[in-house]
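1st attempt posting a full record on here, be nice pls
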Amino acid sequence: MTENIFVDGLGKLHVVGGAARLEFFVLLPSSQSAEGHPTVAPRLRLVMAPETLVHLHAAMKDLVQQFVARGILRPVEPATPEVVND
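the predicted structure (as tokens):
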């Protein structure tokens, strides 16, 4: 059985030893910062080969186009996550 894991967003992207690492986070509304914003907590890290990242990128572009075609999303410029080269 495949496990479903919910995330609120993509945090950092790392390139380590020839592998891509994508770090996802969740928001913790029960824990707030001094400014009153929900606290961010790490939830999941995906580690993959560069070839897998290329396939994922192509699949995600197609998925976004499907959402736009159905009116679920509007075309917008994506936010750029922080990239860290270790």
